[in-house]
Amino acid sequence: MSEPIIDLEHITVTFRDKKSTVHAVKDVSLQVERGDVYGIVGYSGAGKSTLVRTMNYLQLPTSGTAVVNGQTLGKLNTSQLRQARRKIGMIFQHFNLMNSRTIADNIDYPLRYSQLTRPQREKKVKDLLHLVGLDDKADAYPAQLSGGQKQRVGIARALANDPKILLCDEATSALDPKTTGEILDLLKQVNQDLGITIVLITHEMAAVKAICHHVAVMEEGEIVERGPLLDIFSKPQKQLTKDFINTAAQLDTALAEVRRQPAVINLAANAQLLHLSYVGASTDQPLIADLYQQFGITANILYGNVEFLQDTPVGNLIVILSGDISKFPAAFAQLRQEGVTVTVLDPKGDAVA
Amino acid sequence: MSFINQLMPNVSLIWPQVWQATLETLYMTVVSAIIAGFLGLIVGICLVVFDESGIVPHPATYSILDKLVNIFRSIPFVILLAVIYPVTKALVGTGIGNTAAIVPLVVGTIPFYARQVQNALVQVDRGIIEAAQAMGASNWDIILRVYLREGLPDLIRVSVLTLISLIGLTAMAGAVGAGGLGNLAISLGYQRFQNDVVWVAMIIILIMVFIVQAVGDWLTRLTTHN
């Protein structure tokens, strides 16, 4: 495998003031491959924004090294660091556009540091406006734009100097769900068409699910779980990861609803409430039919959801299985062999699978 | 004209002096504003960039500037006039007259304006500064092209405020020998019981203030885009 475009080794960031010491990032190592879309999820205060800022040295790590685009950022002098930053685009939750400049001037601002001539710069701005679908907004001011449009300008500005990397710090968190989808589609396009590596910081698993190839979950300054998107979604190890996934799949709200159903409240002695989840090929297997034919177990589906992650189906079912209880273990074993994750749910509890 | 002569019996005899005093006030205001504006802007920018959360944090420098500004702002202007009299004399050659008054006016205005500039520039969204840094902007770029540009409407607003306060100070300086409308109002008007002279001096100063305010408001509107 080629050299990672971002290579963080043992990054620690500690904030100290007179009163307290905050360990924002604790000994994090992270590699992002060229062309990847890497999601970092976590709740606010998990340290993800601090971590992403060590990738362009807006935040100096207390210890550890950051190698980005083949350059060890800590070894660069001020002017070299400025050069390096021009190849690392960044977009922000609150867009951070300059209110005193028009949209075209905002996008032109980073080009001030390029070698381009005035007409070349004008053409570049025009092309970037076209790329983000704002051809007609060149002379508008940021205050006249909607949130989604502002983020499009943010993206155009970040791409002005043809960066290799785009860092997205909660880039969709201030947007409504529909606009979020549009911005994520644009980021996906930027990744696929321009080959730009994207690091996406977010607290929304839905955003990660939409475009990321890899995901890392952060809690209290540490990466607690990481891997390819499908692995994380199909076999989450940590409770925090499961919480994020369930929120994204709306499984937790569904389960609360399911628990209010009479069929669950009066669950028969020969029945169990289960959460079945599966990825990819398993969806082709007639699971439910097999259970009945082989074990005489009937399934009552209370909730079902199938999503496509990177074109692979991921299914979640909440079912009541009833039949000969003694046959359940064999039936579960069979399901697990087919790649289905089987979790027995407490019909009264509030824990999510 | 006879109506005006009746209304202002004393003023009508000294119109040339009123005109002269107005020019002196304008002279003191404009020259002091240019010098104090330039130096105050620099000190104000330093207060913003050297602050703990600024782009070049430098606690020692910040602390010294901050305390100097506080001390000089705390000195009442009439006392400042007297205190820096030796400095004025050394710089201008005399302690009396409107050119001499420029020295205390500048010294009194710099800290006021610096603090106003600081207050205006800290309003610039930290996120915009961070975005500029992420784009590879140098500190000079950030000061000139982000802070001063983004903070321009607020800078105009505080400049108007400072200019109006400066016009007020010239009147006070006038009362202690610097000439101008303040001198006219006190030594010709007040001390000789010529109330119409006091009124005319006041009205001319009010007109100056209104013009400054109106131009400032217009410029603020012109530069505000949010």
Automatic annotation (TrEMBL), chain B:
InterPro entries noted in UniProt:
AA_ABC_Transporter_Permease, MetI-like, MetI-like_sf
Q: Does the keyword Transferase apply?
A: no
Q: Name one GO cellular component term.
A: plasma membrane
What's one Pfam family the UniProt record gives for this protein? BPD_transp_1
Origin: domain of life:
Bacteria
* Keywords, ordered alphabetically: Cell membrane, Membrane, Transmembrane, Transmembrane helix, Transport
Localization: Cell membrane
Q: Does the keyword ATP-binding apply?
A: no
> ABC transmembrane type-1 domain spans which residues?
22-216
Question: Which GO BP terms, alphabetically?
Answer: D-methionine transmembrane transport
Q: Where are the transmembrane segments?
A: 26-50, 71-88, 94-114, 155-177, 197-219
Concerning SUPFAM superfamilies, the annotation shows:
MetI-like
Membrane topology, as annotated, equals: Multi-pass membrane protein
Specify the protein name: D-methionine transport system permease protein MetI
The organism named in the record is: Schleiferilactobacillus perolens DSM 12744
